[in-house]
Amino acid sequence: MKPALGVCYYPEHWPETMWADDAARMVRAGLSWVRIAEFSWSRMEPAPGDLQLDWLDRAIETLGAAGLKVVLGTPTATPPRWMLDRHPDMLAVDEQGHIRKFGSRRHYCFSHTGYVQECVRIAAIMAKRYGRNPHVAAWQIDNEYGCHETTVSYSPPALQAFRQWLAARYGSIGALNAAWGNVFWSMDYDDFDQIDLPNQTVTEPNPAHVLAFRRFSSDQVVAFNKAQADVLRPLTDAPLLHNYMGRILDFDHFEVGADLDIATWDSYPIGFLSDRLEADEAHKTAFLQQGDPDMQAFHHDLYRAVGRGRWWVMEQQPGPVNWAPYNPAPLPGMVRLWSIEAVAHGAEVVSYFRWRQAPFAQEQMHAGLLTPDNRPAPALSEARQTADDLKQLGEVNQTRAPVAIVFDYASDWAWATQPQGAGFDYFRLVFSAYRAARRAGLSVDFIPPGDIPTSGHDLILAPGLATIDPAWQDHLAQGTKLAILGPRSGAITDDFQIPEQGRPGLTGLDCHVDLVETLPPHISRPVNGGGSARHWIDRVSGNAPDLLTFDDGAAALKGIDGLWYLAGFPDDDLWDRVIAMAAEATGTEVKPMPPGLRRRQTERHTFLINYNAGPVDWNGYRIGGCDAEIIRNDPTDNG
Ligand code: GAL
């Protein structure tokens, strides 16, 4: 696969006289893809039924004639104001019961069937008009599901849909009462129509009720996306995609992805570092203008799995953003480095957000490749340089990584519902495992729960995997040399009860959770020989050998050949030990990496990505600050 570059463009923001010059400059910058139209509904249909698509015809023609391939977005993340007059109850409602009003974007509730029909209608109009247009080479449906906390809505349409969903899932109200344990606190219901949404209760609602609502909310996103995919499919052969976001877990991306051809995501490394990553001040200072060295790669690898191998970066940060608490500029070289890193992880396209900085509205402080007055911004030359680098690089093909991590969105919903300890967070746990594998120089794949590839990763990690069924576990055993489960794996049923067989309930491993402790963030429990556990401790007993013990003698890691259970949330030192032990047990070669330097192996190349501001020496290589070293695995390979 030969990677390419692209850009996000808003022809409706600029006089038409600028379009041809913009297109020619994009091509000169080495870009070959351009995404348009995803927020342009008010210009496509200024009044209900008044379709004004001539400008879009001309925009597509101008961009296409310059040699660009167009990603055409359906504009359903930004319904125009008149839509509200037609559907006054289409707005989402937050947990406190406040309506989320018009005046920004994503102002719709996924459960509003009238709005879903409007989306289907506009998607059909676009697909009929552009489905066979030779310049339209991909379709983006909507924009960033879940962004701005929009997956979960407590609206009246959501309530109606939730009751129907519950009736379909449980069949009878008796079954629901039993599954949820509603005998507790006399919460039994007589009828599905008595069930409310799980907000504004006196104290915490039943976690089974909340988890069901979270599953339902995810299903609504899947259905919303599918409604448009079903309309587009028969009318175009171009691939369908969506642009996901970073650290948004509140719908099942694997399920949305199953109805699409390519997963894409929006990568804002510096925004994420300050906005959505827990790290100490020293780390945030060291990587202030580069972003966290694992955060982007984590999502690249995750979305490669969501896209079943096919994925892009749809929006790449090109300079300061507008939405984080503080917005520093990337160090010189970082825009190129982020792009190359994405390619190392298999991106087919890296597309910058956006072409020219907007001079108006919410994002006027968000950098683009050009300044608002049409001069090159610093990122433009880095994009150009990246295009040249990619030409040199040729084909980049992925191979199976030695390590796989099971990623399960429903586990996040479960643990967010009942964290038990304020520091226990599913993303944080999985990300800590991911970082540890990367510190050991190992490439990582993600796999959805239930999908264990038979040809085998050496090591599979499934930390915090809420529910484990025995058939899955058998399959897992056949698919890998070693699986490490825990902490908090196999801890609940699908309906949030403690499993009958106890926890973690693994066949073949005599290991039982006797009690669970959670700890405040400044406390940790040392492990003999180094490292410690924090946030969460499973106190386990059983005849399976203790591979590591806490300083009070309790087991920290139990295991038999092929299956280990980790009894606490490891700090970095403990993860490093566990990964080293696992590598030894599976015969996997580790290559310890210095801070900020990361390694990704592909079929023909080894990429060394240096997030540090200064140079790093590693294994005979000197890698410059904010730079990459790309090594051919076969030195005689010149292609
Ligand atoms: C993304 C979004 C874009 C733009 C960008 C700014 O989340 O998809 O439309 O808002 O952020 O960084």
Which features does this protein show?
639 residues; alpha/beta; TIM Barrel; 8-stranded parallel β-barrel; 7-stranded mixed sheet; binds beta-D-galactopyranose
Can you give a write-up of this model?
The model has no long low-confidence stretch (mean pLDDT 97). The strands form five sheets. The chain has an eight-stranded parallel barrel with strand order 1-2-3-4-5-6-7-8, surrounded by four helices. It is α/β, with parallel strands linked by helices. It starts with a strand and ends in a 7-residue tail after the last strand. A hairpin with a 3-residue loop joins β20 (597-601) and β21. 32% of the residues lie in helices and 19% in strands. It folds into three domains: 4-152 and 237-393, Glycosidases (TIM Barrel), CATH 3.20.20; 403-586, Rossmann fold, CATH 3.40.50.880; 599-632, no CATH class. Beta-D-galactopyranose binds at residues 143-144, 147, 266, 268, 315, 321, 323, 353, 363, 366.
Secondary structural class: alpha/beta
Which strand order does the major sheet show?
1-2-3-4-5-6-7-8
In total, the number of strands is 24
Which blocks of ≥5 consecutive residues have pLDDT under 50?
A: none
Gyration radius, rounded: 25 Å
Distance between the termini: 13 Å
Residue fraction in strands:
15-25%
Bound molecules: beta-D-galactopyranose
* DSSP summary: helix tally: 18
Superfamily (CATH H level) name of the largest domain: Glycosidases
CATH class of the largest domain: Alpha Beta
The amount of helix comes to: 25-40%
What is the CATH fold-level name of the largest domain?
TIM Barrel
CATH architecture term of the largest domain: Alpha-Beta Barrel
Roughly what is the average pLDDT, rounded to an integer? 97
